[in-house]
């Protein structure tokens, strides 16, 4: 009998340890373990309660309904389970019916008086840490039996459960850390400012993006500064479309593009008969931009007599049409741009200081392309994609050609790059853009870098000699044909052959 018990006990332990290691679903593992235990012991109910947030709650059970499990929550020190969880040593209640401490919190033991039920409760401990409590309702026939064997088995099972809980929690912690990391990464990526169709991963452009993100929502006047082709207009539009005025109009006006005499009526409109040719009244750009944004490009070219009028619109939001009496009120946000050194204009008296300060509320400096070379591969990729789509082509660029493009200074900035890529895509007959396809002006700086003029001359001569020889071989040494091939006159080829010491005899 004794041996039988040992065998069954070992089998139970083996089964339970197998179950606990079977999956990462702790709750279902524990539930299965309780079921195996119930089969072995004459056990009516079995529960595993785990400590969490200063409380202890049933995690899995055998012989309890879902509702009963939910009710199984105890404060530390409360009831038997709470006490075991607090003190960390087992408690055996030989007969539940006689025990006033017994809470029956779950409400599962309505039959308490009719049956003989012992309640065995052992802590689930990992080293010195109390993780929870394993408890069992044990049915027994007669009073006075010892539960020592049961207790010993439960302690072993509790230690198996402890290891499993610990492992599970470590994994959960790791998972959480990973999730957190991913979340942080996501936030970081989101923190990187993005604006549709504006390329700029470089720090300089990220600063620009950051300030326009910040300023877009307001009505503040923005002054965009930067060389030609750096994207001033693109950014002006981005600000408008990121602002609450996005649904309103975006009106662009280039102060340098219109003869001085027409500027005022273009900006502020005119009444019928205001001047010869004013056959009807007309609204100006400021009126058209009402509830939207007006973009004044090349503001530095604004004539001195118009500057006070712009100042007035900025300050009073009002103006009169040319030849008109009526004061017109508008709600307009102004974005101005200039590639000029406005401060010089101010000191020369060409630009009013008060207007300068009024415009300079939020200055945004767009870096030249050569100052943000790290954006170039992205820009090139962006333009290649666009022009490939427009031209229904699939052209890529070789890495050495890319290198040359990145090395170039791009005085015309993004616009020049954009035009160059478009031309390359349109003209290319090859699938790949190689250095040979690039316009000469892009490559010339590299030639300039060769230190000695002599070296350059020598290498050019070497190349020329080689080309002449090839042409002569191809044409069977007929000088006139070779000359035609190379675009020389027969006289020129004769002269060059003499210069380079080329004759048929020495070649054979
Ligand atoms: N960061 C960028 N990403 C993508 N395209 C850009 C970027 N910057 C400029 N571009 C493109 O380059 C061209 C020139 O930009 P834009 O007209 O805005 O420059 P600009 O500063 O107003 O130049 P200009 O002073 O000559 O008027 C446009 O086609 C624009 O779409
Ligand atoms: Mg522009």
Q: Residue share in helices?
A: 40-55%
The hetero compounds bound to this protein are: adenosine-5'-triphosphate, magnesium ion
The overall average pLDDT, rounded, is: 87
**Strand arrangement across the biggest beta sheet:** 3-2-1-6-5-4
* Radius of gyration from CA coordinates: 43 Å
**Separate helix tally:** 20
Quote the beta fraction: 15-25%
Label the overall shape.
elongated
Report the CATH superfamily of the largest domain: GAF domain
Task: Report, as a whole number of angstroms, the end-to-end distance.
Answer: 112 Å
How many strand segments?
17
Q: By helix and strand content, what is the structural category?
A: alpha/beta
Concise synopsis of the structure shown:
The protein is α/β, with parallel strands linked by helices. The protein has 20 helices and 17 strands.
Task: Lay out the secondary structure.
Layout: H1 2-20, H2 26-40, E1 43-52, E2 55-62, H3 66-71, E3 73-75, H4 79-87, E4 91-93, E5 117-126, E6 129-139, H5 148-191, H6 203-216, E7 222-225, H7 232-242, E8 250-254, H8 260-268, E9 269-270, E10 282-283, H9 285-288, E11 293-297, H10 307-316, E12 318-320, E13 327-329, E14 333-338, H11 342-347, H12 353-359, E15 362-365, H13 376-391, E16 396-397, H14 399-407, H15 413-427, E17 432-433, H16 440-448, H17 453-474, H18 479-486, H19 490-500, H20 504-507
Parallel strand pairs: 7-14, 7-15, 8-11, 11-14, 16-17
Antiparallel strand pairs: 1-2, 1-6, 2-3, 4-5, 5-6, 9-10, 12-13
Helix pairs in contact: 1-2, 1-5, 6-7, 13-15, 17-18, 18-19
Magnesium ion is lined by residues 232-233, 297.
């Amino acid at each position: 009998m004794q041996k039988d018990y040992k065998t069954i006990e070992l089998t139970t332990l083996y089964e339970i340890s197998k179950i606990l290691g079977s999956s990462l679903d702790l709750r279902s593992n524990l539930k299965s373990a309780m079921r195996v235990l119930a089969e072995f012991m004459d056990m009516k109910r079995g529960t595993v309660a785990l400590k969490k947030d200063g409380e202890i709650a049933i995690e899995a059970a055998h012989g309890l309904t879902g509702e009963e499990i939910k009710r199984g929550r105890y404060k530390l020190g409360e009831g038997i389970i709470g006490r075991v969880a607090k003190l960390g040593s087992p408690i055996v209640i030989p007969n539940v019916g006689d025990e006033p401490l017994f809470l029956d919190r779950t409400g599962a033991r309505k039959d308490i008086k009719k049956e003989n039920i012992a309640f065995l409760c052992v802590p689930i401990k990992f080293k010195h840490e109390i993780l929870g409590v394993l408890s069992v309702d044990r049915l027994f026939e007669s009073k006075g039996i010892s539960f020592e064997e049961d207790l010993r088995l439960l302690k072993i099972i509790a230690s198996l459960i402890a290891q499993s809980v610990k492992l599970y929690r470590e994994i959960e912690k790791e998972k959480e850390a990973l999730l957190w990391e991913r979340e942080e990464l996501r936030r970081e990526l989101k923190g990187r400012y993005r604006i549709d169709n504006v390329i700029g991963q470089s720090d300089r452009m990220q600063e620009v993006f950051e300030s326009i993100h910040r300023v877009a929502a307001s009505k503040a006047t923005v002054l965009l500064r930067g060389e030609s082709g750096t994207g001033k207009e693109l950014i002006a539009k981005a600000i408008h479309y990121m602002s609450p005025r996005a649904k309103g109009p975006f009106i662009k006006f280039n102060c340098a593009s219109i003869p001085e005499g027409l500027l005022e009526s273009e900006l502020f409109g005119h009444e019928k008969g205001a001047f010869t040719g004013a056959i009807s009244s007309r609204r100006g750009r400021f009126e058209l931009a009402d509830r939207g944004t007006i973009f004044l490009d090349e503001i530095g070219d604004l004539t001195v007599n118009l500057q006070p009028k712009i100042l007035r619109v900025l300050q009073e939001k009002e103006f009169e049409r040319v030849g008109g009496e009526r004061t017109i009120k508008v709600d307009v946000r102004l974005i101005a741009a200039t590639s000029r050194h406005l401060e010089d204009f101010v000191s020369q008296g060409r630009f009013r200081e008060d207007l300068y300060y009024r415009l300079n509320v939020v200055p945004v400096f767009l870096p030249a392309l050569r100052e943000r070379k790290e954006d170039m591969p992205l820009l090139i990729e962006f333009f290649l994609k666009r022009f490939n789509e427009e031209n229904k082509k699939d052209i890529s660029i070789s890495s050495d050609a890319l290198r040359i493009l990145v090395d170039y200074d791009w005085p015309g900035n993004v616009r020049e790059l954009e035009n160059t890529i478009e031309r390359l895509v349109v003209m290319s007959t090859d699938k790949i853009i190689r250095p040979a396809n690039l316009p000469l002006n892009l490559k010339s700086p590299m030639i300039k870098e060769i230190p000695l003029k002599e070296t350059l001359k020598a290498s050019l001569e070497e190349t020329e000699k080689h080309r002449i020889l090839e042409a002569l071989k191809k044409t069977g040494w007929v000088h006139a044909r070779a000359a035609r091939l190379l675009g020389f006159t027969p006289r020129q080829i004769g002269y060059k052959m003499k210069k380079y010491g080329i004759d048929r005899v020495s070649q054979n």
